[in-house]
Amino acid sequence: MLSVLLDPILPVFAIMFIGFFAGRFGKVTDEEARVLNKFAMTVLLPIFIFRAVALAPITDFNLAALALYAAAQAVLYTFGYLLARKVFRLGVSESLLLGFCGVFANNAYYVLPIAKLLYGDGGTLPVASIVIMDAILVFGGTMVALEARKGRDAGAGLALVAARIAKLPLIWALALGLVVSAGSIALPDPIDTFTAFVGNAASPIALFAMGVILSATPLKPEPVVLATSTIKVVIFPATIALLLYTLLPPADTLPLFVLASAGPSGVMAFSLALLYSVRTDAIMQVTVWTSVLTLATLAFLA
Question: Which of 72, 74, 231, 257 could be joined to 102 by an S-S link, Cβ 3.0–4.6 Å?
């Protein structure tokens, strides 16, 4: 597992450390980091997601395992939201994102490279299928909920909120990607090259922006941070393992679904918080602490 830590985990997160020092020494301001994050979320990420969905072999996915995975996510997302909202008395949008943190792992840029290194290209399909499902249901659904909340806070009616949601680049990216995948349409070479080149910049820019903001954020483990981190690091992977190993027949791919659930909270929660002007302190701490704590669980599961 040491080799996995050295490559790809540390190289991926090195850009966040660069952002941290850039912020700490005043080379990049908080406002500049927010502009970078908005660019990553509204331009680069939709391109990345379009390509990922368009190229996904959806017909080869283990739908039974994905259904159980999604069911666990729905229950624990709701639990995390209610915990943040009712017990810790946080706002609706922040509670949504903390619920998101508890079930959305950094699979695309963290677990997927680990799975590829350990199991080869043939062993990455379960993790890739979760990346696609998460992009459509969990990330897409959370962004729609945040957009709806933003519209309601601004006094917009239902029709206007729906119109705002329909204009989200992410929604168009998901829809177009599904059309291409379902129709088995091959991406023309220029589009394939463009989406690969541009889409891959989304995560590094988001991580850099996170590092800048982190440089001014004290890492104090608040109770809500501890609770959300426990859901992500312990409860969610344990629930996935329990469901898969008790309700499905034995299969070589099941450990990879558990491995995917054990990844740290994805940086996208933080990016969404910046995009929708939600308090980032607790969300960022969950991302950082789970990134540290999951090193042990990933080492064990791998």
Answer: 231
Contact 289, 234 (CB under 8 A): no
- 160 CA to centre of own chain: 27
Q: Which amino acid is at 105?
A: A
Structure tokens at 178: 């599904």
% of the chain surpassing 70 pLDDT: 94
The pTM for the full model equals 0.86
Our count of domains for the chain comes to 1
Best CA proximity match to 207, nearest among 40, 93, 43 = 40
The alpha-carbon radius of gyration of the chain (Å, integer) is 18
What is the SS3 assignment for 18-34? Answer: HHHHHHHCCCCCHHHHH
Here the CATH number for the domain that contains residue 227 is 1.20.1530.20
What tokens does 137 get?
């249901």
* Domain coverage including residue 189: 2-301
- Per DSSP, 268 falls in state H
